[in-house]
Amino acid sequence: MNQSELTIRTVLDANELTPMDAAGVLCFTLAVGLTSGPWGVAAGVLVLVAAAATGGPLAFVVAQLTAVSLFGDAGLVAVGGAQLAAFPLLASAAFAWPPDRARLARLAAGYVVALGVAWALWSTLRWAWQAAAVAAVLAAAVAYGLHRYERVALGLVDAPEAER
């Protein structure tokens, strides 16, 4: 199937939630639901919709953005819990089931580095809107990088053409 044949219907028909997707949605919903009540459950439903409607890392990005919006003034434990709970969504987007242990270890290391950066930004930014703006810019940059990588990996463009 080429890029022009992808529609919402074909993605929904072809997408199957993996056990890691289910674990990620459940853990994220529990983490934000316990601290934010009904708004946390609504965020979990939004992440579930994103996981069911897409095959890429969009569910992880949605989870991160909803966590930032819900926990703008929360403590480190609440923010860290939501970040950790969303990890299976990222792993599921990156790898098929069952995952390769070496790749998953590299992904976990990258995730820990990302958590360190998020913590540094969260602890140094003064207002919640600044943290939300940083998270949105970071999510856009990561999504763009993954998009460029996928185009090369799928053979839609040659590697030299992707450098432009």
Structure description:
- This protein has 164 residues and is mainly α.
- The chain has one domain.
- The chain contains 9 helices and no strands.
- It has helices at residues 8-14, 19-36, 38-53, 58-70, 76-85, 87-94, 101-124, 128-153, 159-162.
- Helix 2 runs antiparallel to helix 6 (87-94).
- It is globular.
- The mean pLDDT is 72.
Instruction: Report the β-strand fraction as a percent range.
Output: under 5%
Structural class: mainly alpha
Q: Are there runs of 5+ residues with pLDDT below 50, and where?
A: none
Estimate the global geometry from the Cα principal axes.
Answer: globular
Give the rounded overall mean pLDDT: 72
Q: How many β strands by DSSP? A: 0
Distance from first to last alpha carbon? 25 Å
Radius of gyration: 16 Å
* Largest sheet, strands/sense/barrel: none
Alpha plus pi helix count: 9
Counting structural domains, the number is 1
H/E element order: HHHHHHHHH
**Helix fraction?**
over 70%
Transmembrane segments: 39-62, 74-97, 104-122, 128-146
Organism: Haloferax lucentense (strain DSM 14919 / JCM 9276 / NCIMB 13854 / Aa 2.2)
Protein name: DUF8163 domain-containing protein
Pfam families: DUF8163
